[in-house]
Write a sequence for this structure.
């Protein structure tokens, strides 16, 4: 069977959630990042099918909206895991053993940075500085900050997340 | 009723402050003790977070590194009355790390409730704007110019000159933009100000609006700082309700409105023109300069762009006068800088000192040296685009010119300490890799050069034709430095070449045969 096209759906299907968010921002083109943030907060990702709808609402080209949605690391066109771990990869956390923590996380979850576990439950992502530099390594776990993470904490941390999902 | 102060700062939260606050409230209730929990800003004594404070006749008393498990014992020890306990720090203002600072921007840190306008006013807040409202715009610009304030974001451009350019420009609409995209690793002063003293930033930006004749401002805050964004929005609503923002500020003819915009995880948006593109809802691609943003900035209108800390210095300059601020510092670096100690240090956090303090004083006297037991080997100053300094270079004075003369840069004042376990070839490779990940892609030296840089460092480390590849790396870095459109590609060679020249042994080159400096 042919691989499903990853091109944007140009069929112009309605996407009420996206339209409502655009309207809440007055259909202002300069609010595009805010709109994408809001949509992602609502749906967990920015579905490709929403992009032409947003383009129309803001009177932008589809290419412009697609360009913005794919330029920024924050926006995801594909669904993420139920839990998202954003672990810092930047220098201050490196100096405090950050790479060892990342390696431990990759091992415990069986994924590499930027991937989601096979069961779709946990996504591991790199971030570059959370501003918690005196007490690294640091992470944002489902938006909750955590500092002074040690490699030896990782197994317990992952177990906790898995337990919450059960 | 006894007051208990528990910081609401993101770092305190990351170490369990929210849970400690709940535990203290529950324990107090169980013991029938009436307490008022105040979620104050953080003192910036990071190693003591969560740092719980109580009032006493001798001023605030502190308990550092409090965990939920400590709460019952603290109550048993009568901590509300300042009882003895192993976590007790004694009078907070007497802690040497804090006592030996010169805090201007961080004067209210740890003392006030961040979203209490009454607290802000009681501690000198809005004195600067009150004065500015009665001044001609040109006089506000003059005051800022005379203070010697330079941009705290990293470039160190004189703030007054920038403001004068916008002031003199003719346009129907001008803007004030705050660059709060504090992406440099090892920096967190902007975050702490936005979370801990948001009215100070609002006041500084409002004064900038009066100076330039701008009625609209944006704060572009990175999405990695969710609590800063929430706090700013809350503070803007409070300031607007109290007529410190909006139309007819405090009954005058002056108006200024503020909006917060979230970044989306792109480091390049800390570059001012990429930030403008991003606020306009576009990809964060760098603009060629000229035209300069002061004349042709947001929506092509004249725009003041400053860093959080630059705006935050302004209320005090207006309130106390330019001279009071300029009396701090050395040479052409006037005032104070909130240095940020991070990485492998016993005592990290905010150290606000006048320019001219040495790196050694910051790292050893304040920071207490590396905590993992191994000696210090390298220090990166000024974020991921800043130079690595060796242990022999710690006596350098921290001011813009001295750092530049040493082939380094002060940047945003971030200091990241590495101990002897660091592999400097790995750090140099990371600098190139980071540039490859975060490059906006507009100019070739940055977009392609960074990827080629990773490859050539890999070849040097692997021992492939080392001498020739060392030359390639030097050439590549020279091309990036000279040919990149902005500081991302232009400064990435700084950490790379400083690591390469100062620590050649990590690249498999002879330790004693350092390459000649250009």
């Amino acid at each position: 069977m042919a691989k499903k096209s990853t091109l944007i759906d140009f069929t112009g299907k309605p996407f009420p959630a996206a339209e409502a968010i655009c309207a809440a921002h007055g259909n202002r083109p300069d609010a595009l990042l805010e709109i994408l943030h809001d949509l992602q907060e609502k749906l967990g990702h920015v579905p490709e099918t929403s992009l032409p709808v947003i383009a129309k609402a803001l009177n932008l080209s589809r290419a412009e909206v697609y360009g913005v949605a794919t330029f920024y690391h924050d926006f995801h066109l594909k669904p993420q895991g139920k839990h998202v771990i954003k672990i810092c990869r930047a220098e201050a956390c490196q100096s405090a053993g950050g790479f060892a923590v990342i390696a431990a996380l990759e091992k415990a979850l069986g994924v590499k940075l930027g991937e989601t576990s096979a069961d779709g439950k946990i996504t591991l992502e790199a971030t570059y500085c959370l501003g918690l530099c005196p007490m690294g390594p640091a992470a944002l776990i489902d938006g909750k900050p955590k500092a002074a993470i040690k490699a030896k904490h990782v197994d317990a941390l992952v177990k906790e997340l898995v337990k919450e999902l059960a | 009723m006894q007051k208990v102060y528990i910081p609401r700062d993101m770092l305190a939260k990351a170490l369990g402050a929210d849970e400690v606050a709940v535990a203290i409230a529950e324990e107090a209730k169980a013991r029938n003790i009436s307490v008022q929990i105040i979620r104050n800003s953080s003192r910036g004594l990071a190693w003591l977070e969560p740092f719980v404070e109580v009032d006493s006749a001798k001023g605030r008393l502190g308990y550092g590194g409090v965990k939920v498990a400590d709460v019952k014992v603290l109550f048993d020890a009568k901590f509300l009355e300042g009882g003895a306990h192993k976590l007790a720090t004694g009078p907070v203002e007497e802690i040497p790390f804090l006592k030996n600072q010169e805090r201007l921007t961080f004067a209210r840190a740890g003392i006030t409730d961040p979203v209490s306008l009454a607290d802000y006013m009681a501690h000198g807040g809005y004195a600067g704007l009150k004065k500015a409202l009665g001044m001609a715009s040109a006089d506000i610009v003059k005051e800022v110019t005379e203070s010697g304030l330079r941009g705290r974001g990293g470039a160190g451009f004189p703030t007054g000159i920038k403001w004068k350019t916008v002031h003199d420009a003719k346009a129907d609409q001008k803007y004030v933009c705050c660059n709060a995209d504090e992406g440099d690793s090892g920096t967190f002063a902007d975050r702490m100000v936005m979370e801990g003293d948001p009215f100070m930033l609002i006041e500084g930006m409002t004064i900038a609006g009066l100076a330039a004749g701008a009625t609209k401002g944006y704060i572009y805050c990175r999405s990695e700082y969710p609590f800063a964004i929430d706090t700013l929005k809350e503070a803007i609503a409070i300031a607007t309700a109290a007529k410190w923002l909006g139309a007819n500020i405090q009954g005058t003819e002056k108006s200024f409105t503020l909006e917060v915009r979230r970044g989306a995880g792109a480091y390049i948006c800390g570059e001012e023109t990429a930030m403008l593109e991003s606020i306009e809802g576009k990809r964060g691609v760098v603009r060629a300069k000229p035209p300069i943003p002061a004349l042709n900035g947001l929506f092509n209108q004249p725009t003041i762009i400053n860093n959080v800390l630059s705006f935050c210095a302004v209320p005090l300059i207006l309130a106390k006068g330019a001279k009071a601020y300029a009396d701090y510092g050395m040479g052409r670096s006037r005032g104070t800088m909130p240095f940020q100690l991070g990485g492998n240090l016993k005592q990290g956090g905010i150290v606000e000192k006048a320019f001219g303090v040495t790196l050694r004083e910051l790292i050893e006297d304040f920071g207490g040296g590396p905590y993992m037991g191994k000696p210090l080997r390298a220090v990166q100053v000024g974020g991921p685009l800043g130079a690595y300094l060796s242990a022999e270079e710690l006596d350098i004075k921290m001011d813009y010119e001295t750092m530049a003369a040493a082939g380094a840069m002060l940047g945003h004042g971030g200091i990241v300490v590495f101990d002897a376990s660091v592999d400097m070839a790995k750090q140099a490779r990371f600098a190139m890799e980071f540039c490859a990940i975060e490059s906006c892609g507009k100019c070739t030296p940055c977009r392609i050069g960074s990827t080629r840089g990773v490859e050539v460092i890999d070849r040097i480390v692997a021992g492939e034709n080392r001498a020739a590849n060392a030359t390639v790396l030097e050439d590549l870095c020279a091309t990036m430095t000279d040919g990149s459109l902005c500081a991302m590609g232009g400064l990435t060679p700084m950490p790379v070449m400083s690591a390469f020249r100062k620590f050649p042994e990590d690249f498999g080159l002879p330790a004693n045969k350092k390459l000649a400096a250009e």
